[in-house]
Amino acid sequence: MSMLYGFLVLTVFFIAGEVLRVLLALPVSGGVIGMILLTLLLMIKGSISDSLAGASQALISVLVLLIMPGVVGVFFVADEFAGQWLAIGVALAAGTLLSVLTTLWLMQRFSGPEAGGHE
């Protein structure tokens, strides 16, 4: 029952993101907007509930399956990317580099001294 409450919270933020996207005509996915709203709420709150953590962990374990339809869809519109492969390659390389650097920074910031990062 606890995990269902966590899924309900995630669904509510997803729907809130979709509503904001439609009302404000934003060019960003409603899921991303909902995730930003949830992140802001959790930052203000300062903690995460067990139900939300449990539901999030369950979704992370199947994250590859959630991303797969979007990845497969790119192959069907590959012709639309003709002539833009350099820009796509640069964006992928820059995005990957920024993602790795951000992950490293966050790990150093929140791991604490017991992780061996600081003395």
TrEMBL record:
Subcellular localization, as worded in the UniProt entry: Cell membrane
Keyword Transmembrane helix: yes
InterPro entries membership: LrgA/CidA
Signal peptide bounds: none
Segments passing through the bilayer: 31-48, 60-78, 84-106
Predominant localisation class: membrane
Membrane topology: Multi-pass membrane protein
GO cellular component, one term: plasma membrane
Domain of life: Bacteria
Alphabetic keyword roster: Cell membrane, Membrane, Transmembrane, Transmembrane helix
PANTHER family linked: HOLIN-LIKE PROTEIN CIDA, HOLIN-LIKE PROTEIN CIDA-RELATED
Name this polypeptide is given: CidA/LrgA family protein
Organism: Marinobacter panjinensis
